[in-house]
Write a structure and sequence with these properties.
Largest sheet: 4 strands, antiparallel
Strand content: 5-15%
Structural class: alpha/beta
Helix content: 40-55%
Bound molecules: arginine
């Protein structure tokens, strides 16, 4: 569907051409002085010099042409040569009715692209902590946004399931339970189907083993040996590794479920392993691989570089693969499986160099097609109030579950202050609202920036917060329910606005497709957040200034109900894109 602003601009373009000017000068923008007008066009200013005319004269020529257009309530030239535009309420209401009828509120579905999105990135057998939170939260939102516009999107958690941590766990397990069949070299039977550890044991084993390896050289060596054996396919270690994977993934799934994050694929670094030998061979055949200080590397320098980009190390001197090797092999696999138009990665900004190197090798070696877009979305750190990376009170790494619990507890207190629902309902609701507080607190910042995790601010029901947005939705739902208790809503039309705050709400809603398409193209959830804050403010202003349910004019009342129902639809679509939902009451 044409964007509202495009309709206005089209009319202006025609007028500019009619007056003998190029249409590119007819650009229309939202007014930066909403107290004076709703839209503006500054083209006359830019034209003045070339045409040796006063800008106001040009603006007046344009006004002469368009002044009777029915889309304008008022259009005027003001000194020194701006064109100020106010929209006709009937024209606006027509557009509002058009988007109200449309399932995607006027968003156009693009030619669908196949997009792999690599996010989450948890490491198996290590607890999920806040460091992985942002990747999951931002990635989930970007996935939903891309899907909303009709793309074929494949979300892959890309687990860290193949590295030294596996060798460490196996080695520690061998010390603790040497009698397990996995450590009996003469054992030839089937391996047990039950894992020899629980998730809590597993989570305790890893830090213990990791600590040991830092102090005990021989332990470390054993861990490296075990890792190598596992990677070479030694059956008992493969069997143990499968157990580690299963137990850990079950726990990860639960955590991601609690975050309302879900993946289409549960692949990991290990899945790329079989692709490595051929890929290395191919790099060699293309003459891209050379030896440097014992390792095999690929040069990735480009002429336009302004800083040093070191060669990408693809193989260590002992033949072992590295993080970059695994990511390159994963691209080989993704090309084969999905032939994607775009692959998006989400990690914190410290991995920027890694992805620059990997992307360059992938292009240079034709691992991906020339026109495959490889995108790295980096995010900043979640800091505590002290401005340092967020930690628990005793300085440890905060586990995600605890973080979610803390924020739900804060919301619970606030809900209980109102005392309008039972304790049990407050508990349930605080989970839903807490998640919104957490996600909105994160997503409302531009991803690349650091932000301060502030539980009091995030859980507040006022201001630019998740709970405020939900509170607004709940308020609308409650009005709609009350109306529907006594009326049937058969006429789904909105009448032209009769007061300023009603028109303002319509103007905000008329931008839906413009804002959302733009946010999706820029992969920028923070723009969706800014927009729902704007809708919520516009709705609340309208709500405070208007008698909705007690309006005596039934037609008007019904129109209000349709308008706020559209506002609810817009808000609900947006929060779904952000990855959270609204309760019925709060
Ligand atoms: N497991 C990695 C980490 O914790 C993140 C993986 C990101 N994805 C990727 N394809 N490299 O740092």
């Amino acid at each position: 569907m044409k964007k509202f602003i495009e309709l206005i601009e089209d009319t202006m373009k025609e007028a500019f051409v009619k007056a003998g000017y190029e249409e590119k000068f007819a650009k229309v923008t939202l007014s930066n002085r909403p107290d004076l007008c709703e839209y503006q066009c500054n083209g006359a200013m830019a034209l003045a010099k070339a045409h040796k005319k006063a800008p106001i004269a040009i603006a007046n020529e344009i006004i002469e042409i368009v002044k009777d257009e029915k889309m304008f309530d008022k259009i005027e030239a003001v000194m020194p040569g701006f064109i100020n535009i106010n929209i006709d309420s009937e024209f606006l209401a027509e557009y509002i009715n058009d988007i109200y009828k449309d399932e995607k509120l006027g968003c156009s579905v693009n030619e669908p692209k196949t997009i792999v999105i690599d996010y989450g990135g948890a490491n198996v057998a290590k607890p999920l902590h806040v460091g992985h939170l942002r990747s999951a939260v931002i990635g989930e939102s970007i996935k939903r946004m891309l899907k909303f516009l009709g793309n074929n999107v494949i979300g892959d958690v890309h687990l860290g399931d193949w590295g030294l941590q596996m060798g460490l766990i196996i080695t520690e397990l061998k010390e603790r339970q040497p009698d397990l069949v996995y450590f009996d070299e003469s054992y030839e039977g089937e391996y047990p189907s039950e894992a020899p550890f629980t998730i809590s044991e597993l989570e305790e084993i890893y830090p213990c083993a990791s600590g040991k390896s830092k102090q005990d050289e021989s332990f470390k060596e054993k861990a490296h040996e075990a890792t190598l054996k596992l990677q070479q396919g030694y059956p008992p270690y493969r069997a143990l590794w499968k157990h580690i994977l299963n137990v850990s993934i079950k726990d990860l799934k639960m955590n991601y479920d609690n975050l309302n994050v879900s993946f289409d694929l549960w692949k990991g670094e290990s899945d790329a392993d079989p692709y490595i030998p051929d890929m290395i061979k191919d790099l060699k055949n293309q003459g891209l691989l050379y030896e440097s200080q014992g390792a095999m590397v690929v040069d990735v320098v480009e002429e336009t570089d302004t800083k040093e980009i070191p060669p990408c190390i693809v193989q260590k001197s002992n033949g072992a693969a590295l993080y970059a090797t695994s990511d390159l092999a994963t691209l080989v696999q993704r090309e084969q499986d999905f032939n994607p138009d775009m692959v998006v990665y989400l990690t914190d900004k410290r991995q920027e160099m890694h992805f620059t190197q990997v992307f360059r090798v992938a292009k240079k070696a034709n691992i991906v097609k020339d026109n495959t877009e490889l995108k790295f979305i980096s995010f900043g750190t979640m800091n505590g109030k002290d401005g340092k990376p967020f930690k628990t009170r005793d300085g440890g790494v905060m586990r995600l579950e605890h973080l979610i619990k803390d924020i739900s507890d804060a919301v619970y207190e606030k809900i209980m202050e109102n005392r309008s629902v039972s304790e049990e309902e407050a508990r349930e609701t605080s989970k839903v609202v807490g998640l919104a507080a957490l996600k909105y607190g994160d997503l409302s910042n531009q991803a690349s920036k650091d932000y301060v995790f502030d539980i009091d601010r995030f859980s507040s029901f006022e201001g630019n917060t998740g709970p405020y947005i939900l509170y607004t939705i709940v308020r609308i739902k409650s009005i709609l329910n009350k109306y529907l208790e006594e009326n049937k809503l058969t006429d789904l039309s909105v009448l032209p606005a009769s007061n300023a705050s009603e028109k303002e709400l319509m103007l905000v809603l008329s931008k839906f497709n413009d804002v959302i398409e733009n946010a999706v193209n820029e992969l920028a959830p923070h723009k969706v957040c800014a927009y729902i804050y704007e809708i919520s403010n516009a709705f609340n202003k309208f709500y405070h200034e208007t008698k909705i349910l007690s309006c005596e004019d039934e037609d008007k009342k019904r129109s209000y109900i349709n308008l706020i129902s559209l506002a609810k639809n817009a808000l609900e679509i947006c929060i779904d894109l952000l990855g959270f939902a609204a309760p019925d009451r709060m």
